[in-house]
């Protein structure tokens, strides 16, 4: 019997309590286990405990949602997001086998879940900061995206069942964060923005003062809020991916909701662009740099092209909706996802430079001039992607746009 009562009232756990929880509630370990625990969360919102039994070589992850975000207690968030995350992980585990960790347990009182420990993997962003490349990443992540996105649309699902799913994954608080931090605040001089001093004049001249551009960000915001197309991950950046050479696992879908499928694809593309920009700014000239930059570019191209190819195939195999099979519909539908992909990639590139939540790829560039140059490049590429989103229909169009922005 535990001295701590985990069944009555929610409280935020410390490492010792996570050990006790794993023993008495999860009953995950053997009697003779020698347990240690470390809080390893490095995201903006939650607490992540890794509990290890060295003696029997077993481990588990306990992830708990706190009542406020770690990045700032301005964000008061319902810990129910942990339910959304657990349910979605379970659903995605069946839609995209092998590409999502296994969830063992969800606890609606402690607002935590227990899942497979992936400590033989590494967070993709951390690996990219060490300039490691992953030739299978584009293949894995496009399988994950096509399966989780297309199989949750009205093209495939029964429409009543899909509407039930939309209801159960309604996620207003986390969506509000994205509506504010991705779609609104970066595009005016908002007090909550966190802008590198040398970048601010360009933000004003290139983005804030351009009314045509600002209008496009508004259109994209309404697309995000009103297009309940697919069950999206909602925060698919390189910190939400665990990776090793031959395996990719997508974690952290707490921002998930029914939104535009291109939201996920655009995030993946944007964070590969951040990795490329970071490598350009920080690596010494030579073969290692050339290989790494070439890999980031091929990954950008492959993500778009493989997504298209697999989407077309799965659509053909799984579409159930009669009208979705009319000639020309698949092309129309896929092109609208590609348009959203480019728009979201552009927004993400701008918001991680100007808004509240940054990315290490850029903030770890120590040389001030190089960081300013990198930030400006992201803004220029971001704006172009948003303004040209209708014609960003294949991987090469991304590489061409990136090259144009270098000139
Ligand atoms: C208050 S949360 C800030 C950011 O962290 C998350 O990972 C999302 O990207 C969010 O926008
Ligand atoms: Mg996260």
Key traits:
407 residues; Phosphorylase Kinase, domain 1; Aminoglycoside 3'-phosphotransferase, Chain: A, domain 2; five-stranded antiparallel sheet; 12% strand; binds 5-S-methyl-5-thio-alpha-D-ribofuranose
Explain this structure.
This protein is α+β, with helices and mostly antiparallel strands. It has 2 domains: 101 residues, Phosphorylase Kinase, domain 1; 285 residues, Aminoglycoside phosphotransferase (APH), C-terminal lobe (Aminoglycoside 3'-phosphotransferase, Chain: A, domain 2, Alpha-Beta Complex). 50% of the residues lie in helices and 12% in strands. The protein has 14 helices and 10 strands. Strands 1-2-3-5-4 form a 5-stranded antiparallel β-sheet, with helices on both faces. Helix 4 packs parallel to helix 10 and helix 9 crosses helix 11. It is globular, with a radius of gyration of 21 Å. The termini are far apart. The model has no long low-confidence stretch (mean pLDDT 97). InterPro entries: Aminoglycoside_PTrfase, Kinase-like_dom_sf, Methylthioribose_kinase. One of its GO terms (molecular function) is kinase activity. Pfam families: APH.
The helix fraction, in percent, is: 40-55%
Give the beta-strand count.
10
* Fourth CATH level, the homologous superfamily of the largest domain: Aminoglycoside phosphotransferase (APH), C-terminal lobe
Shape type: globular
Give the number of domains. Answer: 2
Low-confidence stretches: none
What do we call the CATH topology of the largest domain? Aminoglycoside 3'-phosphotransferase, Chain: A, domain 2
Biggest β-sheet: strands ordered side by side in the sheet:
1-2-3-5-4
Calculate the terminal CA-CA distance, rounded to whole Å: 68 Å
Rg from Cα: 21 Å
What is bound: which ligands?
Answer: 5-S-methyl-5-thio-alpha-D-ribofuranose, magnesium ion
Let me know the average pLDDT.
97
Q: Can you write the helix and strand succession as a string? A: HEEEHEEEHHHHHHEEEEHHHHHH
Number of helices: 14
Helix-strand makeup class: alpha+beta
